[in-house]
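Re: the 81-residue chain
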Amino acid sequence: MKATIYTTPSCPYCKMAKDYLNRKNVDVEEKDISKDKNARDEAIAKSGRMGVPVIIIGEQVIVGFDMDQIDFALKKLSDYN
């Protein structure tokens, strides 16, 4: 499974989300919005917000570090694969 996570270096919730996804054996593509304007614009377009982390799993967009939503999105994706 794969997830995209939009982050900033100073965000503790971004680190927790990345660590959680890694523990779940999810391949994580990280996009640092503090260094990449296009990534920042993508995160805002996908989430409708300016906050991080923004996590994309399949078609699910999760704003913030929410283990229940992450688990639900991973289960939903695995049910379809």
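The chain has three helices and four strands.
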